[in-house]
Specification:
97 residues, Sulphur_relay_TusB/DsrH, alpha/beta, Sulfurtransferase complex subunit TusB, 5-stranded parallel β-sheet, 18% strand, globular, DsrEFH-like
Length: 97
């Protein structure tokens, strides 16, 4: 499997695009956890992920905690803790940012 990018802090669309162009290969999945899940509702972030066809995941517990689980776009997979562990375990490398 490819590298897994673990995003834990809120990120703006411009920051995501900039980081993506420098550090992420198009088929490397992004996993949004903690504060970063709210970024998925920010105009531009979800649109960029969909436009670039980036495999994207959000930790469902963090989405539920913030009351936004029903607002996360359907093309972003909401996963539980066990699925997150599986993603991390199967990744070539986990890169946190």
């Amino acid at each position: 499997m490819a590298n897994l990018h673990l995003i834990s802090q809120a990120i703006s669309p411009d920051s995501l695009k900039s980081a993506f162009s420098r550090y992420v290969s198009t088929q490397e999945p992004l996993l949004f956890i903690g504060e970063s899940v709210a970024s998925l509702l920010e105009q531009g972030v979800a649109e960029f992920l969909k436009q670039e066809n980036i495999p994207s995941y959000a930790l469902v517990a963090d989405c539920q905690l913030r009351g936004i689980a029903s607002q996360i776009p359907s093309f972003i997979s909401q996963i539980n803790d066990a699925q997150m562990v599986n993603l991390i375990a199967n990744a070539k490398q986990t890169i946190s940012w």
